[in-house]
Amino acid sequence: MIIMTSTKLLLLVTCCSILVSLPQPALAATVQSPNCHIHGDPDVYGPGIRYGFYLQWAAILIFQFFVPSHADTIRPASAITVLAVYINTFRNFFHDSLVAIDWPMLWYLTAILVVWNLPSSMNALARTGGSLFVVMIILSVYYLASPWVIFRAWDFGIQHHCVVKSFFFVPISSTAHGWGHIPQSWLELGRRHRRGVGLGRHLGAVDVGDVVGQGLC
User: Fold this and answer.
1) Paired residues of 33 in beta bridges
2) Which terminus of the chain has fewer Cβ atoms in its 10 Å neighbourhood, N or C?
3) Is residue 207 located within the same domain as residue 107?
4) Pair (47, 132) in one structural domain
5) 120 and 52 co-located in one domain
6) Which terms are listed as keywords in the entry (predicted)?
7) Is 40 helix (H, G, I), strand (E, B) or coil?
8) Has residue 172 been placed in a domain?
């Protein structure tokens, strides 16, 4: 039986992750009408891709349960896989990928799954070494990039004659206008509960309560 050292295992996972991110961007299309083709990134939300990631993380959890002493090896290995997914996703942003759909789904493939690799006790935390630092750096990529994605890249891949909505408390059209898509949902909630209008006026987002939520449909 061949026993791989921690360094060799980490190197193998790194090479495989790089190779995964090298193929040319591909697109998945959903046809709403003869004139409306919604493109997306199959590397993010294709069922086979998602199941593969979920099974991978299940294998990681089982591995850590039976061999906890090697958690420092498998943790950065999984973080490198997450980094490869981020690189592929950002690259596809500029190849007609529908960011408004891809970005929320990316959270379930990466950020939420990395949480399961965090230490669950003080003793495990003391033995993490630099692996926990690597995981936190990779995890921060999603949250640090979110403001740019939401306010700058949200329109990437959108065809204005197609109806595409994302749900954030309320359905928000991907072609909504205003000073931001998420803040608009907050204002829409405020209009419904008669609390957010005053805040919107204070921030200069709205002038009249009747226009709160304008552009959400």
Assistant:
1) 36
2) N
3) no
4) yes
5) yes
6) Membrane, Signal, Transmembrane, Transmembrane helix
7) strand
8) yes
